[in-house]
Amino acid sequence: MKFLYKINRNHLILFTAILLISSVAGFYILHHIILNATKESLVEKETLLIKQINETGEIPNLYPVIEVKKIDQLSDEEPEFKEILIQNDVEGELEPYLEYSNHVKINDSLYSIKLRQSIFENEDLVIILALSLFLIISVSFGVSFFISKKINKTIWTDFESNLRAIERFNFSDNKKIELLESNIEEFDRLNRVINVLTEKLIADYLSLKEFTETASHEIQTPLSVALMNLDEALQMDLNEEAFKKILTSINALKRLSALNQSLILLTKIENRQFKADGDLSLNDLISRKLQEFSPLFESKELDVELKYEQDFILKMNDQLADLLFNNLLSNAINHNLKGGSIQLVIRQAELIICNTGDPNSLTDDTIFDRFTRGNSKSFGLGLAIVRKICETHHLEIHYTNDKLHCFTISKDF
Amino acid sequence: MKLLIIEDEIELLISINNYLVRENYICELAENFRKAEEKLTIHEYDAVLLDITLPDGSGLELLKTIKKFQLKAGVIIISAKNSLDDKINGLDLGADDYMTKPFQLSELNSRVKAVLRRRHFNGTNIITFRELSINTDGKSVTVHGNELTLTPKEYDLLLYFMINKNRVLTKEVIAEHLWADNIEMADNFDFIYTHLNNLRNKINRAGGTNYIKTIYGMGYKFSEP
């Protein structure tokens, strides 16, 4: 929910609540005031009436407003007010009146006096109040909406552009985030915190990057020396046993070197050091890969089938895409049976790669963990790299083992 | 052909030197930036092997010196950094090739020869061994003067063997050369057999001799019978 929307919504709720409460209160207060004023005016009229009767001896009667009767006996009833309804002859409906009744003695005669005054209908009062309530709500909300929009245009634009700058931030650009000063204390404080944090992050990122590259260098150099010397030793006139020993050592060192490179690669992927090159058609890539891997398919007599429904377009670094499918295809070959098959399906936003293989191999997602290697001779890093590449590219990968071993890669929405 | 090898790891420097001297190159060595720069400004070389991580300077800086003083020299960068940025920078600055440590001497030899061919023979070079002859310009092979039709992989295989003659090449080394990085995940390299046997059969049928010897089933050597 947008900040402005939320503020406006809260304002609206608050205004409505305040006005509802105040109008209910207002109704009662207004009612009370009107009633009191009417009572006063009725008592005043009585005084005038008594004065008139006293002076002129006439008994005025004006139904329903004035009703005076001569009575014989003075009852000890107190003067009282009550609200009554009287049929209105003009409009033909019942209308509320306030009635004041009293017994008085004027010039030795006894009179019963009933004075009435029409009061507001409750209905009318509610309608007037509701109308004014609606008017006040819409005017005040309109004004507040206009003001917050105005504020949004001035204050929030800097904030919005800073937000966009943060969203665009990428470690591999090696650029600091440029944040605008807004002269608002809270925002500037936030900017300072973000600057400090990103500077620290960039520094850490660079030192980690440097470390992985230095580590790679430091390990590969002695490995190179050992491998070169062993390669030279291999060229000497050797008996079979010595040849095999040297060859085994060479292969072991090469595995060590590959392991080192794979671990460094995993770190690099985790650090998002690979920038996406652009849109990549999986159909093109897979077709190329199948061509490249054909000698490996042939040597294991594998039947490879590619079902193409719709192209799956990905934004990915070319090198990583290559690596992803090298690892997936190598996996499908190395864990396959001789004479088995590999099936690939490409759909919009989905790729499935299935292979025949040993049914008793790994069955769940632990297959992606580092150094989980099943029956393979590898280090078990291939699929860890696959998962890491997927994770850093908003892709989901799942493994299922039901007759066929299947990996499904799909877009993670 | 005169080469300059720039590498700070002395043992590696000596191994590369010994090997290339045996391959009949004249080699000069530099183990740091200062020495390398001095040699590059005084002498003339046909190719330079350049390690880009030197203790007293960056090899990429030396690349600029090479481009200034050694117009004829082909440059192969040797780096322990498997970093794409360095590779792109290096190639942008005019290096001919980029190799990541660790590498095989046979692979180095093949790359040096390729760079020398491009730089000094205008891409044309005839490599002959007895009745076999490869013209690297048209990628054509002849046996006793008759054209032999090979697939691209078979051609690469034969060229690699002829450049590295008298050298034991293991299946892994051959696979790495022919299929580069994609093959490193393979569990076994038996598929090399198919290509190798096809190549041997084609040469035999054209009246050539089989110079590719199998060594204990693990490696191969191209040499005099």
Order of helices and strands of chain B: EHEHEEEHEHEHEEEEHEHHEE
Strand order, main sheet of chain A: write it out: 6-8-9-11-10
Global morphology of chain B: elongated
Percent in helix of chain A: 40-55%
Number of domain modules of chain A: 3
Description:
The complex is a heterodimer of chains A (413) and B (225). Helix content of chain A is 55%, strand content 19%. In chain A, a hairpin with a 6-residue loop joins strand 2 and strand 3. The longest helix of chain A is centred in the first third of the chain and has 54 residues, at 3-56. Chain A folds into three domains: 3-151, no CATH class; 186-270; 279-411, Histidine kinase-like ATPase, C-terminal domain (Heat Shock Protein 90). With 413 residues, chain A is an alpha+beta fold. Chain A has helices at residues 3-56, 122-168, 185-234, 240-270, 282-299, 318-334, 382-391; strands at residues 66-71, 80-87, 94-106, 109-118, 278-281, 303-308, 313-316, 341-347, 350-355, 395-402, 404-411. In chain A, the strands form three sheets. A five-stranded mixed beta sheet of chain A has the order 6-8-9-11-10, covered by helices on one side. Chain B folds into two domains: 2-120, 3-Layer(aba) Sandwich (Rossmann fold), CATH 3.40.50; 126-222, Winged helix-like DNA-binding domain superfamily/Winged helix DNA-binding domain (Arc Repressor Mutant, subunit A, Orthogonal Bundle). Chain B has helices at residues 10-22, 33-42, 59-69, 84-92, 105-120, 152-163, 171-179, 191-205; strands at 2-6, 26-30, 47-51, 53-54, 57-58, 74-79, 97-100, 126-129, 132-135, 140-143, 146-148, 168-170, 212-215, 219-222. In chain B, the strands form four sheets. Chain B has a five-stranded parallel beta sheet, with helices on both faces. In chain B, strands 8-9-10-11 form a four-stranded antiparallel beta sheet, with helices on one face. Chain B has a three-stranded antiparallel beta sheet with strand order 12-14-13. In chain B, strand 13 and strand 14 (219-222) form a beta hairpin. Chain B is elongated, with a radius of gyration of 19 Å. The model of chain B has no long low-confidence stretch (mean pLDDT 87). Chain A binds chain B through residues 213, 216-218, 220-221, 223-225, 227-229, 231-232, 234-235, 240, 243-244, 247, 250-251, 253-254, 257-258, 261, 264, 274, 292-293, 295-296, 298-299, 319, 322, 326-327, 330-331, 333-334, 376-378, 382, and chain B through 9, 11-12, 15-16, 18-19, 53, 80-84, 100-106, 153, 167-168, 170, 172, 179, 181-188, 190-191, 194-195, 215-216, 218-219.
